[in-house]
Amino acid sequence: MRLKKFSVLNYKVFNAKFSIDFSKENIVILTGRNNTGKSTFLEAINQFYLPTTAKGKIPVECYSNQDENNTIELEAEFVVNDETGETITIIKKYSNDNGKYYDKQNVEIKRTHELKETLDEILANSPYYITPYMTTEEIDKQVQEIYSQIITAELSKLEMEDSDVEEIQAIKKEYLELKSAIPKFLKKLKGNTDSSLSNVSTSVSNSLQSVFSNNSLQLSVYGGESTGFTVSDIVKSTSSSVLIGNNHSSNMPLSTQGTGIQRMSLIYMIQNMIEQGLMGTNNTQKMLLIDEPEAFLHPEAVRALSKSLYSIGSRMPLIISTHSPVLIDLSENHTTIQVFRIGKTEAIELFQSSSSQFDDDDIKNMKLLNYVDSYVNEFFFADKIIVVEGDTEYVAFKHFIKERGLNIHVIRARGKATICSLMKILNQFNTSYYILHDIDNHERFENATLKQQQTNCYNIYALKNDSTRIFGSVPNLERSIGLNDVHNSKKTETIHRIIHDSVEPSYIQAREKIEKVFNYIFRLDNQTSLEQPFIEIVGDKDYENLFNPLLSKKQKVVGKRVSRKVVKAVPDVE
Questions:
Q1: Could you tell me the CATH number of the domain that includes residue 298?
Q2: DSSP state of 108
Q3: 27 and 93: one domain?
Q4: Residue ranges making up the domain that contains 168
């Protein structure tokens, strides 16, 4: 039963109704600035599943403005049939009490309600909730709960399923014999105690009759009958522990380790139990809620965690809140991700994946880019995104962004082939972005090189979507801002001088030209126009106009050279 939509009202920071619609994707990522409610939303989902016991009264701190006159509403819509799209809606309300469940018509779901069985099934499949600040006792409790659920599932299988495996048949036989033997034993034991209980009954009755002057008072004490034991009885009698060791010590309790190791151990245990088939089924998959999984981890561990999250997300529904772009690995298959930014009044769907569009070269490019720049996927968290080809525009644009405090992410592609791979990533998540690349129609290039550069440009334009804008530097950025060609090894040094030198006239002019392009692309100055040799590419024809005259000119030169050689060769042959 899949969670399709979840809404929160009057729960902590959410004093107005706040909803998120989930797609069929298994991995949901919530991001946003601090204090916007990412963690609170996860907490609210977990709160929906918590049992409504007498001791389960929700703390006053959970009510918006800490006002218990408000009614907390946690509304969950579930898909009960993926084929038909049938859904049900259940609302949990807290009105200064321990919480009650209602249907969409505001009728409380009690024992005879038609949704009671469905609600019980939903609550029995409560999520695993992992927070950054879990105590060691809470982690141990999670481990024990997981272990108990595994034991429960195994015992339930013994009671309900038949197996042809001889070992399982033997275990089942032993289990059923034990279950039958306990009532027989208790019956024998009961016979020895019944006589004593009868004497107790007679003595107490005589005392009561004397105190209350009523000879008809009779008190009887009976020993309880036993039908054996249940699965829950066995689970209660079991316990589990997690020990960890290293070169310096062995079999130390997990509680003695650092917070990072404790949380990662829990996450990895869940992952491996899923992969071993010990948790979750195709029909009743549990959901995993992780609040800031990157907390307390060093950068390399965060990258390793990213792979684990993809593995977990491929097997069970996963919702995380995070501030770390590193958790999203561009080289992985992204057909499972949905990303939201939590705002004050709404959740904005930033990205929702579609079918995978990547070939082997794309995956290779993404892996290489991840090694070189692990924060390339920060685009998931930015308001605006631009992909640039080289170091010069990257350094310059980053300077202007920092100087003005803008939420713009610059991705340095380091080549046109990688630009294409990045465009596929961005297109898959249905986002808008800008491209700034060198046209590379350089007059010093040979004919074959020019044709290859033209093909590279065509490949970029072929991936353009309706919200993409593509800009070109003719023939490259350095020449476009009035400099000569700069060797790759000198580009960073040169652009740094351009940005910070306030004396050299050529550098001042170059800086002004870059800033004008920056302002025009992001529409920061309505008075700024795009000046040549920069160009906005609006069609294939633009590339033709930039390359064909140069290709034609070089072809004529080659033709003349060939003609002279042919004329000279004819007399020799005769």
A1: 3.40.50.300
A2: B
A3: yes
A4: 162-233
- Residue 377, both tokens: 């996927």
What does the block give as tokens for 319? Answer: 């919702």
Place of tokens 């997990």: 254
**CB 84, CB 39: distance < 8 Å:** no
Residues 240 and 147: beta-carbon distance below 8 Å: yes
What Å distances lie between residue 234 and 151, 153, 159, 241, 415, CA to CA?
9, 12, 14, 17, 62
Residues across the chain:
574
| 128 within some domain | yes
Q: Residue 349's closest CA among 32, 13, 26? A: 32
Q: How many Cβ atoms are within 10 Å of 379's Cβ, its own excluded?
A: 26
Residue 291 in contact with residue 132, Cβ under 8 Å? Answer: yes
Give the containing element (helix H, strand E) for 437. Answer: strand 433-438
The residue among 31, 37, 49 whose CA lies nearest residue 10 is 37
Taking a C-beta distance cutoff of 8 angstroms, is the pair 333, 425 a contact?
no
> Is 461 found in the same domain as 427?
yes
Placement of tokens 């038909």 in the chain: 84
Do the Cβ atoms of 22 and 338 come closer than 8 Å?
yes
pLDDT category of residue 239 using cuts at 50, 70 and 90: low
Q: Do 16 and 118 reside in the same domain of the chain?
A: yes
Average confidence score pLDDT of the chain = 80
- Model confidence pLDDT, tens digit, residues 444-467: 899 999 999 999 999 999 999 999
User: What is the DSSP-derived secondary structure letter of residue 219?
Assistant: -
Calculate mean pLDDT across residues 125-134.
Answer: 82
Comparing 417 with 326, which gets the higher pLDDT? 417
Helical residues (DSSP H) of 294-359, grouped into ranges: 299-313
Distance (Å, whole) CA 74 – CA 407: 33
> 185 falls in which pLDDT band (50, 70, 90)?
confident
Residue 476: its pLDDT value, please? 93
